[in-house]
Structure formats: C-alpha cells, structure tokens
Design goal:
Blueprint (H helix, E strand, L loop, with lengths): L15 H20 L4 E5 L3 H14 L4 E5 L7 H14 L2 E4 L3 H6 L2 H9 L11 E5 L13 E5 L5 E5 L2 H29 L2 E3 L4 H5 L21 H10 L4 H5 L13 H4 L5 H12 L4 H8 L3 H17 L1 H4 L29
Parallel strand pairs: 1-2, 1-7, 2-3
Antiparallel strand pairs: 4-5, 5-6
Helix pairs in contact: 1-2, 1-8, 2-3, 2-8, 5-6, 12-13
C-alpha cells in the first residue's frame, strides 16, 4: 500500500479489462509452452469462481476448446445444476454431466459418513441431513472446535461438538467427493488432450481451503492470485449471469446448506479479503478494525488465524517429497520441466 493511500475496500479494485487480458494471455502461453495441451476442462459448480474461470478459459481459447464438467451427487444443492447450466448457456460452452452418486455409493461414502456422524448422534440415518460448522474465531481464544449440525426427517435440529476422531472421519469421507470430481476431470482432459483448470481464489489458495489431490489438483489455476472481491469484479466485467453473482458462496459438500464462512473462514468473505490484504501488506489491526467495524483485538485474532491456517495447511501445497534429488527431472522456476517432456500425439 502506498503511503498516501488510506486503507479501504477500494484498495482491492483492479483494472478488470487489463486483468482479463493478462489472464487470458497467461492461459494461452501456459497451454502452449508449458502444458502442451489443446484446451481446458473446468469443473462447473454453479459458483462464482468456477463460472469466472470458465469464462476466462472461453475468452482465451474459444468455446470449442473448453469443456464444462457438471458433477452433481445426491447431496448437491438443487440450484447448483441450474446455475452451472445458466453459465454454460451464457458462454456457449460444451458440457458433460457425470452423476457422482453411484461412484460415491461404490466407495461406501454415504455409509462411512453416516457412521462417523453416529459417533455423536446415534440416531442419524436415512432422511437426515447435516453439515459441519466452526465457531466464530473472533469470539474465541485457543483451539477451533468443530460441531455437527444435523436435521432429522421431522425437522428437528441437533448440534453436537465433534470429538477429533469423528471430525477426522467426516472430513476424510467428504474428501471422496472432491477427489472423485478431479478423477473425472482428468479422465476427460486425457481423452481430449486438454489440461485441467483449478478454480480457487486467493483466499482459498492462501488459507488451504481445498482437498489435496481433490479440488487442489490442477494443471493451471487462473484466478488463484485474485482476492474474492476481485473475482466478483471480473464476474461483472465478463457478464456472468446476475443469479450466479448474487448466489452466496457455499461448499456444496454437505447435505445441509453450508456457507464457507460458517465452515472455514472467520468473517464474511468481503471482510476476510480485507484482513488477508492487510496481513499481506503489514497494515495495523487498528486501521482494519476502523474499516470493518470490529474491535482491534478481534482483528488481531483473525491475523493469528491466518497464520495458523497457513502453517497447518502447508501440507496441502507440498508436492510429493523426494528423499534425494533427481537432477535429470527437475522443475524450472516457471514450472516447466528442464529435461525431457512427454511428446505430443500426432
């Protein structure tokens, strides 16, 4: 932040036309010079990030070199398919739909998940719905303790603190969804000789809000450098349908509707953006507190939580670790192989 600019949400404003062109040029360059693939597969969730990523891919490559993959399962929100279909039609995008439910059933996901929840809610079973929630980090000190919120078929809602083992088993089970989606994305990418586009924004990428080898796996992540509010700026410029831009960000992972801010982030995303920006630019908590409307001590706890998430999710970002270097196969600084690459098919 320059010395003459006061901390405010306007610091996150970007030149949307210039940013769009830079990303599109980056996509074209990386596909040609590094990835050596013909196009991109984008998993469409009906959310803002995947919609903007798909729009950028289409603008960079044309609709015939982009495949939108819709991958619902029985817990998916009903509006997700409606929103992803709306985006696809708006972009003139070719799409395929893969129903994950039979695959997840074969993996015993639904049974594993229910068994984990029954560790704290013994009656949990058919017809129940649930989600994980976290406490407001700005109101607590110490560890983040997750709870399960479950709704019975007759509408009764229960909330129970999750012991560590039940929490780990629930998270391990739900990760089947992201990893199954990514498996299908790479199947279609391989058959088309395309690459896979990841859809995280900067907040998700920085804070490790993804599943390793699930939604964290991709060949290119076009918007990972953009704060969430900047993604919304691009969405308006790219004329993403208003219904998608107005949709609240959701994980679309659990059978009960769940916002990202109640599961992982400490604040509404527009405020988390500002806190992350302030943290990245060494802006004092007192300045942030005045803009967001929280007291300074709560902003300090958010700063601490940012550091904690960076430390605890570092594993998410790590590539496979080698015991010894293999100099013949070494990644260049830009990400390309310094030695031999796979040949293109003729």
């Amino acid at each position: 932040m320059t010395a003459n600019r006061k901390f405010s949400p306007e610091l996150l404003d970007i030149d949307v036309a210039a940013e769009t062109e830079a990303i599109c040029q980056g996509i074209r360059t990386l596909l040609k010079e590094q990835l050596r693939r013909r196009g991109l597969v984008v998993g469409l969730s009906g959310g803002i990030d995947s919609s903007v990523t798909a729009a950028l891919a289409v603008r960079a490559l044309g609709p015939n070199r982009v495949l939108g993959l819709e991958m619902p399962e029985r817990d998916s929100a009903e509006e997700s398919l409606a929103m992803s279909g709306l985006v696809a039609r708006h972009l003139g995008l070719n799409t395929l739909r893969e129903d994950l439910t039979p695959i997840l059933d074969a993996l015993s996901f639904y049974a594993r998940y229910a068994a984990a929840v029954r560790q704290v809610i013994p009656e949990y079973g058919k017809g129940w719905r649930s989600k994980i929630v976290s406490p407001d980090i700005t109101q607590t000190d110490g560890y983040t303790l997750f709870s399960i919120v479950a709704q019975s078929p007759d509408g009764r809602v229960s909330r129970c603190r999750l012991p560590l083992q039940a929490y780990l088993e629930i998270v391990a089970a739900t990760s089947f969804k992201q990893r199954t989606r990514k498996m299908l994305e790479y199947y279609h990418a391989d058959r088309l000789h395309f690459a896979v586009a990841g859809t995280p924004n900067r907040l998700e990428y920085d804070q490790g809000f993804f599943v390793k080898q699930g939604d964290g796996a991709a060949d290119i992540k076009p918007i990972a450098h953009l704060y969430k509010s900047q993604v919304y700026q691009l969405a308006e410029y790219l004329q993403i349908p208003e219904e998608v831009r107005q949709r609240a960000p959701t994980t679309d992972t659990f059978s009960l509707e769940q916002g990202q801010d109640e599961f992982y982030f400490s604040l509404p995303l527009r405020h988390m953006d500002l806190c992350l920006y302030a943290k990245n630019h060494a802006i004092p908590a007192c300045e942030v507190a005045a803009v967001i409307g929280l007291d300074e001590s709560r902003i300090q706890r958010i700063f601490q939580d940012i550091d904690t998430k960076r430390a605890t999710t570092r594993y998410q970002h790590l590539p496979p670790l080698l015991i010894s270097d293999i100099p013949e196969i070494r990644l260049q600084k830009g990400g390309g192989l310094s030695a031999m690459a796979w040949p293109l098919p003729t």
